[in-house]
## 1
Amino acid sequence: GEDVEQSLFLSVREGDSSVINCTYTDSSSTYLYWYKQEPGAGLQLLTYIFSNMDMKQDQRLTVLLNKKDKHLSLRIADTQTGDSAIYFCAERREDGGSQGNLIFGKGTKLSVKP
Amino acid sequence: EADIYQTPRYLVIGTGKKITLECSQTMGHDKMYWYQQDPGMELHLIHYSYGVNSTEKGDLSSESTVSRIRTEHFPLTLESARPSHTSQYLCASSEWGGFNSPLHFGNGTRLTVT
């Protein structure tokens, strides 16, 4: 299929780890991104991973990539109430049809309960 | 911090009015984009541009038009607004060339057509 798939909702307790999952479709994708959108704002780039990497860690964020299964995950350690937002997974496809544009998932709304 | 600005942040207008949503970036990015974000959070690419005098239609058909007379400016125009145009509109920019060119987003314009 053409879609980047994400579950729509995730609820966790403050201090727990959050894991947001994403499946993408194009094995030729070069870069995969995670964006965060807070209420009333645009999208903010959180992190990205190149397709020849398995893992990338940046402070509380860990990105895991399983290229065989086309599965990407974002783990947020010690989740805080300020992490409540919508998280978008995106892939950059290099096929001619998308002109190298990013293809976004529908977003996962993370709710953090105190 | 990305320097991309959208005005107005909020706009409420009546049916049939002509409107222009402004987007400017100060990063010298060649590529710019307009996304429409529906209430279900999903992002739809409606227009993009590779540079001055370049405009392309995105994945989602839109009655809006865009222009790119200057590198830093990418306005979106609706000649005759309708209630179906009610949505959040997000502008973004990226460097042109190279595989890793993440998008930088503005804070969006929330348009309501009554």
## 2
Amino acid sequence: GAVVSQHPSRVICKSGTSVKIECRSLDFQATTMFWYRQFPKQSLMLMATSNEGSKATYEQGVEKDKFLINHASLTLSTLTVTSAHPEDSSFYICSAQDAGSGNTIYFGEGSWLTVV
Amino acid sequence: DAKTTQPTSMDCAEGRAANLPCNHSTISGNEYVYWYRQIHSQGPQYIIHGLKNNETNEMASLIITEDRKSSTLILPHATLRDTAVYYCIVRPPGGKLIFGQGTELSVKP
């Protein structure tokens, strides 16, 4: 299957600071990418849909000013957690839609964020 | 809300076939059935998807009932590395993937 890469895989940041997570589609172009969050022992929760060249669409209850999404190219989307708090500590996972394989969605490896 | 119902957990003996059921009685005519799995602390892995015909690839087979209200994912010869949470998701063309709780499959020696 197609490859989606996330960076960093683990990050620790201090409360009040911002942290950026990158999501890249390595062998295909992705007009649409998705960002999820997953807390321990829970399922994935969709946060937002990222569309190249336009504003992201956020799911209900997700603060767009706190979770900034930028999809500036067909292979890169970034999620910036602003003014991070300990309750933002979670596993963040991106995915990308591959139009070349019937719009199948492939996931990155995930990024563990710990806010201290 | 997820539009599928799956058992919370299942066990399977190593080397045997693992049959994972999924109910999606409210599926619409243009919605696909997708299966993903998530091994602990990793991103979900795409397995297979189908619309109404049965599908097979190198990982698994997907059997969809004629009325499309349920499906079964078959791992023909389960190995210990197949232990994971398996998610059955109904998705409209080009739409979002909304995850439910999935089935925790434990493959035992």
